[in-house]
Amino acid sequence: MQPIPEALYIHIPFCTNKCHYCDFTSYILKGQPVDAYLDALELEMQQTIERWQPKRIKTVFVGGGTPTVLTPPQMEKFLSSVHRWFPLADDVEFSMEANPGTTDRDKLQAMKDGGVNRISFGVQSFDNELLKKIGRIHEVDDVYRSLENARAVGFTNMSIDLMFGLPGQTVELLDDSVQKALELDLPHYSLYSLKIEENTLFHRLYERNELVLPPEEDEYNMYLHLIDRITKAGYKHYEISNFAKPGFESRHNSTYWRNEPYYGLGTGAHGYVDRQRHMNIKGVQPYIDACKSKLPRLEQYDISEQEAKEDFMMVGLRLLDGITASRYSEQFKNSKLEADFGDKLDRQIAQGLMERVSLGNDTIYRLTDRGLLLGNEVFAAFLADE
Q1: In 10 A of CB 299, how many CB atoms?
Q2: Please, what CATH class does the domain formed by 305-380 belong to?
Q3: 146-177 tens-digit pLDDT
Q4: What is the Cα–Cα distance from 275 to 283, expressed in whole angstroms?
């Protein structure tokens, strides 16, 4: 049995528009039954705690979609329901994703009053032309205005997302965005490469050879440039795509990277409880209808101990501090990391992709600089042989 989750993810699926690269469970806001969805979410909260009573919640993450398309009254209603059903720790990290341009002061005040204490802004670029190319509806001025509003109501723990490998993007354009981002002096930055996902506009354009992307070598150089610029500015590169000032690492996302359990609520949301993963029903109305009588599951399946061990390796090695033999034994009682994966670890070390470091009575395994650039190959090495 896993411990009871101390992390909670909640999905708000509504957006003002669909970005060209997005394959998340999200729906255009206009005409949607938002209040009925929030009522259904509360039903799922109630059913969840009746089945798995939490002791306390240390981290909450509200993602989307764009949660900040909720009106201030809807935001207040939603956040009140979270507090009603889940016991939040005094030092809870309560994060919410936001889109620049959807966060006026009234809404931000409702978020702060409702307990949100960390905001992640989806900026993606500080170039208006690039923003148009990828289907974002905000402009650079909206970024500055949103951050100014957030600071005015008292938010200090903020992060922004940037993307690289975008159509028409060059290292020079990326450098300009990074410079503008660093000038904001935020405690956290997330940097993601563009992935062409099925069921997106970009995928359709790519299939027709109508999407011109930077050469692979340029994308590689963009990633190296990002690492160099941001670490030299004093940020710790703590996960493949994430950088933070000391003490501002994302505690919620670290739950995923440590392969720990978490509640997942909302349409299309994923959760991991009692060593069972689930995905909820997709679609706003199907989700609302399902919540009236039962937990809104689309699918759920048990995770064997072997699968859980493989997951531990794949997600844990995303952290640049790596994994430790002691944490492995703590999560998998009576199991030893070297006994289960010794040959694979030795092989990755021999190839220069990982390193082994002794720390007192413990042992750390982590990616090398070369392994960082070939992460997916390293992670795949820990899957069970066919």
Answers
A1: 9
A2: mainly alpha
A3: 999 999 999 999 999 999 999 999 999 999 99
A4: 26
